[in-house]
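To whoever is on call:

I kicked off a structure prediction for a single chain this morning and the downstream step that reads the tokens threw a length-mismatch warning. I double-checked the sequence; it's 152 residues and nothing unusual in it as far as I can see. Pasting both halves so you can look.
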Amino acid sequence: MAANEQDLRLEILNTLLTTPHRKLELIWPVHRELVEQDPRFYVRLGAWYHDHGDVRDHKEMFIVTLVLSSFEGHRDVGLALLRGLPPYQVVRVLDFIHGRKATRKVRAAPAKEKGKGKNKAVGRASKKEKTAKGERNGESSGALKRGVQCRA
């Protein structure tokens, strides 16, 4: 009996030492099996790992497993741990629970080429036109910069 218990906890430890790199579906069966075999130890381990663990994927999987567990008190602990997560992790937990786990790669749109002579010339011409238009209306270029109108 003691050897069996040691093997189970050794399996838990080995699972926690692996990093799934956002592939929660790979560690979900192991966590589900562990909570069924030793629910009282699993809830304590989940709370401890939430405080002291380093791998975010396992923190999320402990919460998922506790929230979905039918064992009394697990859901309350899972929801309490969920409240301590940053928003992006809460979304990842909820997406996994609802089966919406999809990794999407967003590709950046190609950079638009800047026009060399055309756009710059238009920009300069419009500045010149504004200055010339202001001088025709009785404003000098210096007064235009200061926002003062000259009277003739």
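Update from on-call: the warning came from a stale cache, not from the record. Cleared it. Sanity check on the structure: The mean pLDDT is 75.
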